[in-house]
Amino acid sequence: MAITRLIHAPKIAKLALGATIAASALGAHAAVNADTQQHAAAAQGVHANSGPEQRSAKGRETKVNVTAQQVLDLARAQVGTSENAAGGGTKFQKWYVDSPRAAETVQRDGGSRQDYANAAWCSMFVSWVGEQSGARSQVGWDAYTVAHAKWFAANDRWGTEAKPGAVVFFSWSGSKDLSAINHVGFVVKDNGDGTISTIEGNTGNGKVEQRVRPTSQVVGYGYPQYAA
């Protein structure tokens, strides 16, 4: 079953001498279908700059020699990749489970690394493409769409213009609130008619697909600083 984002519902227990977070496993998070359902709950307590590689990069930008076209070519080469009947089994999920970022997001969100194996993978797909193309420092990496978007915003890389290679965040309700984000992908181009062409993971029937989306569903765009 295709699912678009992880929506947090952690239970927090504060102890007397410091706070210990007892978060529920990701399996308890609500899941929504990429094309047919809207989000079930708002995100709670998300920190966009969690983890050493996901903190604000203001004042210390890392230049990469990767172009938007290279990133899009790699993303396009994944078209047709499909999840299994349990909503997992993709190389994007397997990579994330074993990544250092998984340990950081488990600490932030609760659950365990293995929970990502069958979890929403649209943001994991974007993160994998960033990693494999050598543009991770510009694309970011996260399993949670809202946190991924907030990272771009915190680093002054957020806007409303569709640019090739930009990371596009969607809300099926049409909301412009980052906490309402349902889904994420890459912009291929602005079609100039109120739609954009995209490449997305975990869409349709749980596949990587090329899509055409109305801009009315776009919350905003994250802008990696690609090489010219």
Task: Compose a concise summary of this entry.
The chain is α+β, with helices and mostly antiparallel strands and 228 residues long. The protein is built from 6 helices and 8 strands. It has a single domain (13-222), classed as endopeptidase domain like (from Nostoc punctiforme) (endopeptidase fold (from Nostoc punctiforme)), CATH 3.90.1720.10.
Instruction: Report the biggest beta sheet as strand number plus sense, adding barrel if it closes.
Output: 6 strands, antiparallel
- Tally of DSSP β-strands: 8
Write out the CATH superfamily name: endopeptidase domain like (from Nostoc punctiforme)
Strand neighbour order, sheet with most strands: 3-8-4-5-6-7
Helix coverage percent of residues? 10-25%
Q: Average pLDDT value?
A: 81
Q: Supply the number of structural domains.
A: 1
Helix count, DSSP H or I runs of 4 or more residues: 6
Judging from the principal axes of the Cα atoms, what is the shape? globular
Radius of gyration: 16 Å
Strand content: 15-25%
Supply the CATH class.
Alpha Beta
Distance between the amino and carboxyl termini: 38 Å
- Category by helix and strand content: alpha+beta
CATH architecture: Alpha-Beta Complex
The SSE order reads: EEHHHHHHEEEEEE
Named CATH topology: endopeptidase fold (from Nostoc punctiforme)
Uncertain runs: 1-5, 7-53
What descriptive keywords fit this protein?
18% strand, 6 helices, 228 residues, two-stranded antiparallel sheet, signal, CHAP_dom, endopeptidase fold (from Nostoc punctiforme), six-stranded antiparallel β-sheet, alpha+beta, CHAP domain-containing protein
